[in-house]
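Could you help me review a protein record that somebody else here produced? My question to you is simply how this chain folds and whether the C-alpha coordinates agree. Thanks in advance; the entry in question is below:
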Amino acid sequence: MSTMLSIRDVRKVYDGGGEALKGVSLEIEEGEILALLGPNGAGKTTLISIICGIATLTSGKITVGGHDVIEDFRAARRMIGLVPQEMNLEPFEKVINTVALSRGLHGLPRNDSYLDEVLKKLSLWDKRDTPIRELSGGMKRRVLIAKALSHAPRVLFLDEPTAGVDVELRKDMWQIVRELKAQGVTIILTTHYIEEAEAIADRIGVISRGDILLVEETGSLMRRMGRKDLLIELHEPVATIPESLSKYDLRHGERDDVLIYSYDTQAARTGITQLLTDLSEAGLVLRDVQTRQSSLEEIFVGLVRDNNAEDAA
Protein backbone atom coordinates (compact mmCIF):
# COMPACT_ATOMS: atom_id res chain seq x y z
CA MET A 1 0.00 0.00 0.00
CA SER A 2 1.06 3.58 -0.60
CA THR A 3 0.94 6.45 1.86
CA MET A 4 -2.25 8.46 1.47
CA LEU A 5 -1.86 10.92 4.34
CA SER A 6 1.53 12.14 5.51
CA ILE A 7 1.83 14.33 8.64
CA ARG A 8 5.34 15.48 9.50
CA ASP A 9 6.32 17.40 12.63
CA VAL A 10 3.09 19.40 12.71
CA ARG A 11 2.83 22.04 15.41
CA LYS A 12 -0.01 24.34 16.33
CA VAL A 13 0.73 27.23 18.70
CA TYR A 14 -1.94 29.79 19.55
CA ASP A 15 -1.30 33.50 19.95
CA GLY A 16 -1.33 33.16 23.74
CA GLY A 17 1.48 30.60 23.56
CA GLY A 18 -0.61 27.48 24.16
CA GLU A 19 0.49 24.42 22.18
CA ALA A 20 -2.34 22.32 20.78
CA LEU A 21 -0.01 20.08 18.74
CA LYS A 22 3.61 19.39 19.65
CA GLY A 23 5.35 18.04 16.58
CA VAL A 24 2.86 15.38 15.46
CA SER A 25 4.12 12.92 12.83
CA LEU A 26 1.97 10.20 11.31
CA GLU A 27 1.80 8.17 8.08
CA ILE A 28 -1.54 6.64 7.06
CA GLU A 29 -1.78 4.11 4.25
CA GLU A 30 -4.29 4.03 1.42
CA GLY A 31 -7.37 1.98 2.35
CA GLU A 32 -6.49 1.92 6.05
CA ILE A 33 -8.79 2.56 9.01
CA LEU A 34 -6.98 4.46 11.75
CA ALA A 35 -8.74 5.14 15.04
CA LEU A 36 -7.41 8.24 16.77
CA LEU A 37 -8.12 8.10 20.49
CA GLY A 38 -7.56 10.75 23.10
CA PRO A 39 -9.29 12.59 25.94
CA ASN A 40 -11.04 15.92 25.43
CA GLY A 41 -8.48 18.60 24.60
CA ALA A 42 -5.89 16.08 23.38
CA GLY A 43 -5.58 17.70 19.93
CA LYS A 44 -7.70 15.34 17.80
CA THR A 45 -10.07 17.97 16.42
CA THR A 46 -7.26 20.49 15.94
CA LEU A 47 -5.29 18.01 13.84
CA ILE A 48 -8.31 17.12 11.71
CA SER A 49 -9.20 20.80 11.26
CA ILE A 50 -5.70 21.56 9.98
CA ILE A 51 -5.74 18.64 7.52
CA CYS A 52 -9.18 19.68 6.23
CA GLY A 53 -8.17 23.33 5.80
CA ILE A 54 -10.40 24.66 8.58
CA ALA A 55 -7.40 25.72 10.71
CA THR A 56 -3.80 26.57 9.85
CA LEU A 57 -0.67 24.89 11.15
CA THR A 58 2.17 26.80 12.79
CA SER A 59 4.88 24.60 11.30
CA GLY A 60 5.32 21.20 9.68
CA LYS A 61 4.06 19.61 6.49
CA ILE A 62 0.92 17.66 5.53
CA THR A 63 0.20 15.98 2.22
CA VAL A 64 -2.93 14.16 1.08
CA GLY A 65 -2.42 11.89 -1.87
CA GLY A 66 0.83 13.74 -2.49
CA HIS A 67 -0.83 17.18 -2.47
CA ASP A 68 0.40 19.70 0.09
CA VAL A 69 -2.54 21.02 2.12
CA ILE A 70 -1.14 24.57 1.90
CA GLU A 71 0.67 24.81 -1.43
CA ASP A 72 -1.89 22.71 -3.33
CA PHE A 73 -4.87 23.08 -1.02
CA ARG A 74 -7.61 22.77 -3.67
CA ALA A 75 -6.41 19.35 -4.88
CA ALA A 76 -5.82 18.18 -1.29
CA ARG A 77 -9.23 19.35 -0.09
CA ARG A 78 -10.94 17.66 -3.04
CA MET A 79 -9.63 14.31 -1.82
CA ILE A 80 -11.05 14.76 1.69
CA GLY A 81 -14.49 14.13 3.12
CA LEU A 82 -15.33 15.25 6.65
CA VAL A 83 -18.18 13.98 8.83
CA PRO A 84 -18.32 16.45 11.74
CA GLN A 85 -19.66 15.66 15.16
CA GLU A 86 -22.13 18.56 15.03
CA MET A 87 -25.47 18.14 13.24
CA ASN A 88 -25.05 21.19 10.99
CA LEU A 89 -27.88 20.44 8.56
CA GLU A 90 -30.58 22.69 7.10
CA PRO A 91 -33.77 21.32 8.77
CA PHE A 92 -36.23 22.24 5.99
CA GLU A 93 -34.15 21.01 3.05
CA LYS A 94 -34.71 17.60 1.46
CA VAL A 95 -32.08 14.88 1.84
CA ILE A 96 -31.23 14.70 -1.88
CA ASN A 97 -30.88 18.47 -2.20
CA THR A 98 -28.64 18.61 0.87
CA VAL A 99 -26.29 16.00 -0.58
CA ALA A 100 -26.35 17.49 -4.10
CA LEU A 101 -25.47 20.94 -2.75
CA SER A 102 -22.45 19.52 -0.96
CA ARG A 103 -21.19 18.03 -4.23
CA GLY A 104 -21.70 21.36 -5.98
CA LEU A 105 -19.69 23.20 -3.34
CA HIS A 106 -16.69 21.09 -4.37
CA GLY A 107 -17.04 22.40 -7.91
CA LEU A 108 -18.10 19.09 -9.39
CA PRO A 109 -20.76 18.67 -12.10
CA ARG A 110 -24.13 17.11 -11.37
CA ASN A 111 -24.09 13.31 -11.19
CA ASP A 112 -27.48 11.94 -10.16
CA SER A 113 -26.55 8.29 -10.63
CA TYR A 114 -23.56 8.58 -8.28
CA LEU A 115 -25.57 10.38 -5.58
CA ASP A 116 -28.37 7.83 -5.90
CA GLU A 117 -25.82 5.07 -5.31
CA VAL A 118 -24.49 6.85 -2.20
CA LEU A 119 -28.00 7.20 -0.79
CA LYS A 120 -28.76 3.54 -1.44
CA LYS A 121 -25.58 2.36 0.30
CA LEU A 122 -26.46 4.46 3.34
CA SER A 123 -30.11 3.28 3.41
CA LEU A 124 -31.27 6.81 2.60
CA TRP A 125 -32.85 6.13 -0.78
CA ASP A 126 -36.36 5.91 0.63
CA LYS A 127 -35.78 9.18 2.50
CA ARG A 128 -34.32 11.15 -0.42
CA ASP A 129 -37.30 13.53 -0.64
CA THR A 130 -37.79 13.80 3.13
CA PRO A 131 -36.98 17.11 4.88
CA ILE A 132 -34.06 16.79 7.30
CA ARG A 133 -36.18 17.85 10.28
CA GLU A 134 -38.32 14.71 9.89
CA LEU A 135 -35.36 12.32 10.21
CA SER A 136 -34.23 10.48 13.32
CA GLY A 137 -30.85 11.27 14.84
CA GLY A 138 -29.35 8.14 13.28
CA MET A 139 -30.63 9.04 9.82
CA LYS A 140 -29.20 12.54 10.16
CA ARG A 141 -25.83 10.93 10.89
CA ARG A 142 -26.16 9.01 7.64
CA VAL A 143 -26.94 12.25 5.78
CA LEU A 144 -23.72 13.75 7.16
CA ILE A 145 -21.81 10.78 5.75
CA ALA A 146 -23.61 11.11 2.41
CA LYS A 147 -22.62 14.80 2.24
CA ALA A 148 -19.01 13.86 2.94
CA LEU A 149 -19.08 11.20 0.21
CA SER A 150 -20.85 13.38 -2.36
CA HIS A 151 -17.61 14.26 -4.17
CA ALA A 152 -16.10 10.73 -3.96
CA PRO A 153 -13.24 11.54 -1.56
CA ARG A 154 -10.34 9.14 -1.09
CA VAL A 155 -9.84 10.14 2.57
CA LEU A 156 -12.75 10.26 5.00
CA PHE A 157 -12.63 11.78 8.48
CA LEU A 158 -15.27 10.58 10.92
CA ASP A 159 -15.40 12.73 14.04
CA GLU A 160 -17.42 10.81 16.64
CA PRO A 161 -19.72 9.37 13.94
CA THR A 162 -21.81 7.22 16.30
CA ALA A 163 -22.15 9.67 19.19
CA GLY A 164 -25.67 9.59 20.56
CA VAL A 165 -26.94 6.68 18.45
CA ASP A 166 -28.14 3.33 19.77
CA VAL A 167 -26.05 0.14 19.73
CA GLU A 168 -27.85 -1.41 16.74
CA LEU A 169 -27.37 1.65 14.56
CA ARG A 170 -23.75 1.92 15.71
CA LYS A 171 -23.08 -1.57 14.35
CA ASP A 172 -24.77 -0.58 11.08
CA MET A 173 -22.36 2.35 10.84
CA TRP A 174 -19.42 0.02 11.44
CA GLN A 175 -20.54 -2.03 8.45
CA ILE A 176 -20.72 1.11 6.31
CA VAL A 177 -17.14 1.96 7.31
CA ARG A 178 -15.96 -1.55 6.41
CA GLU A 179 -17.59 -1.28 2.98
CA LEU A 180 -15.90 2.06 2.34
CA LYS A 181 -12.56 0.52 3.30
CA ALA A 182 -13.20 -2.31 0.83
CA GLN A 183 -13.56 0.37 -1.86
CA GLY A 184 -10.10 1.68 -0.97
CA VAL A 185 -11.20 4.73 1.02
CA THR A 186 -8.78 5.76 3.76
CA ILE A 187 -10.64 6.40 7.01
CA ILE A 188 -9.56 8.30 10.11
CA LEU A 189 -11.95 7.79 12.98
CA THR A 190 -12.12 9.65 16.27
CA THR A 191 -14.31 8.08 18.90
CA HIS A 192 -15.00 7.87 22.62
CA TYR A 193 -16.33 4.33 22.17
CA ILE A 194 -13.23 2.22 22.71
CA GLU A 195 -14.99 -0.92 21.46
CA GLU A 196 -15.59 0.89 18.17
CA ALA A 197 -11.88 1.32 17.59
CA GLU A 198 -11.19 -2.23 18.70
CA ALA A 199 -13.84 -3.63 16.33
CA ILE A 200 -13.04 -1.85 13.05
CA ALA A 201 -9.64 -0.12 13.14
CA ASP A 202 -6.53 -1.54 11.47
CA ARG A 203 -4.35 0.63 13.69
CA ILE A 204 -4.83 2.62 16.86
CA GLY A 205 -3.28 6.03 17.45
CA VAL A 206 -3.34 7.54 20.93
CA ILE A 207 -2.90 11.31 21.33
CA SER A 208 -2.67 13.20 24.61
CA ARG A 209 -1.83 16.87 25.24
CA GLY A 210 -0.79 17.38 21.62
CA ASP A 211 1.58 14.41 21.51
CA ILE A 212 1.15 11.12 19.67
CA LEU A 213 1.88 8.51 22.35
CA LEU A 214 1.81 5.56 19.97
CA VAL A 215 0.48 4.27 16.67
CA GLU A 216 0.25 0.51 16.39
CA GLU A 217 -1.66 -2.29 14.69
CA THR A 218 -4.71 -3.04 16.82
CA GLY A 219 -4.08 -6.74 17.43
CA SER A 220 -0.39 -6.17 18.09
CA LEU A 221 -1.18 -3.44 20.62
CA MET A 222 -3.58 -5.73 22.46
CA ARG A 223 -0.97 -8.50 22.59
CA ARG A 224 1.94 -6.26 23.55
CA MET A 225 0.35 -4.06 26.17
CA GLY A 226 -2.68 -6.08 27.21
CA ARG A 227 -2.84 -7.82 30.53
CA LYS A 228 -4.87 -10.89 31.27
CA ASP A 229 -7.11 -11.58 34.21
CA LEU A 230 -7.32 -15.03 35.78
CA LEU A 231 -10.84 -15.50 37.09
CA ILE A 232 -10.88 -17.99 39.95
CA GLU A 233 -14.27 -19.35 40.95
CA LEU A 234 -14.36 -20.85 44.44
CA HIS A 235 -16.64 -23.51 45.89
CA GLU A 236 -17.47 -21.22 48.77
CA PRO A 237 -17.52 -17.39 48.92
CA VAL A 238 -14.85 -15.59 50.97
CA ALA A 239 -15.64 -12.20 52.47
CA THR A 240 -11.98 -11.46 53.19
CA ILE A 241 -9.01 -12.59 51.11
CA PRO A 242 -6.47 -14.41 53.33
CA GLU A 243 -3.39 -12.37 54.31
CA SER A 244 -1.15 -15.15 52.99
CA LEU A 245 -2.29 -14.26 49.46
CA SER A 246 -1.66 -10.49 49.73
CA LYS A 247 1.39 -10.55 47.42
CA TYR A 248 -0.87 -11.48 44.49
CA ASP A 249 -3.05 -8.34 44.74
CA LEU A 250 -6.18 -10.45 44.36
CA ARG A 251 -9.54 -8.72 44.19
CA HIS A 252 -13.11 -9.88 44.30
CA GLY A 253 -15.17 -10.19 41.14
CA GLU A 254 -18.85 -9.39 40.97
CA ARG A 255 -19.45 -12.09 43.58
CA ASP A 256 -17.57 -13.09 46.73
CA ASP A 257 -16.91 -16.56 45.32
CA VAL A 258 -14.84 -15.14 42.43
CA LEU A 259 -11.28 -13.83 42.79
CA ILE A 260 -9.38 -12.01 40.04
CA TYR A 261 -5.62 -12.15 39.48
CA SER A 262 -4.05 -9.85 36.85
CA TYR A 263 -0.78 -10.80 35.19
CA ASP A 264 1.50 -9.59 32.41
CA THR A 265 1.27 -11.79 29.32
CA GLN A 266 4.83 -10.82 28.31
CA ALA A 267 6.45 -11.66 31.65
CA ALA A 268 8.82 -14.61 31.91
CA ARG A 269 6.72 -16.00 34.75
CA THR A 270 3.03 -15.34 35.30
CA GLY A 271 2.98 -16.60 38.89
CA ILE A 272 -0.16 -18.63 38.22
CA THR A 273 1.30 -22.01 39.22
CA GLN A 274 2.46 -20.74 42.61
CA LEU A 275 -0.81 -18.87 43.11
CA LEU A 276 -2.87 -22.04 42.66
CA THR A 277 -0.64 -23.82 45.17
CA ASP A 278 -0.98 -21.00 47.70
CA LEU A 279 -4.76 -20.90 47.23
CA SER A 280 -4.93 -24.57 48.17
CA GLU A 281 -2.70 -24.06 51.20
CA ALA A 282 -4.96 -21.19 52.31
CA GLY A 283 -7.87 -23.63 52.38
CA LEU A 284 -9.67 -22.27 49.29
CA VAL A 285 -11.22 -24.88 47.00
CA LEU A 286 -11.44 -24.05 43.30
CA ARG A 287 -14.55 -24.70 41.20
CA ASP A 288 -13.34 -23.22 37.91
CA VAL A 289 -10.52 -21.13 36.40
CA GLN A 290 -10.63 -19.03 33.21
CA THR A 291 -8.70 -16.17 31.62
CA ARG A 292 -9.94 -12.85 30.24
CA GLN A 293 -8.01 -10.42 28.05
CA SER A 294 -7.92 -6.82 29.26
CA SER A 295 -9.71 -4.36 27.01
CA LEU A 296 -8.35 -1.61 24.78
CA GLU A 297 -10.03 0.86 27.12
CA GLU A 298 -7.83 -0.27 30.01
CA ILE A 299 -4.73 0.07 27.80
CA PHE A 300 -5.80 3.54 26.64
CA VAL A 301 -6.51 4.79 30.15
CA GLY A 302 -3.14 3.51 31.33
CA LEU A 303 -1.24 5.24 28.52
CA VAL A 304 -2.93 8.60 29.11
CA ARG A 305 -2.47 8.34 32.87
CA ASP A 306 1.24 7.59 32.47
CA ASN A 307 1.67 10.51 30.05
CA ASN A 308 -0.08 12.93 32.42
CA ALA A 309 2.10 11.72 35.28
CA GLU A 310 5.25 12.36 33.22
CA ASP A 311 4.08 15.89 32.34
CA ALA A 312 3.37 16.64 35.99
CA ALA A 313 6.80 15.37 37.12
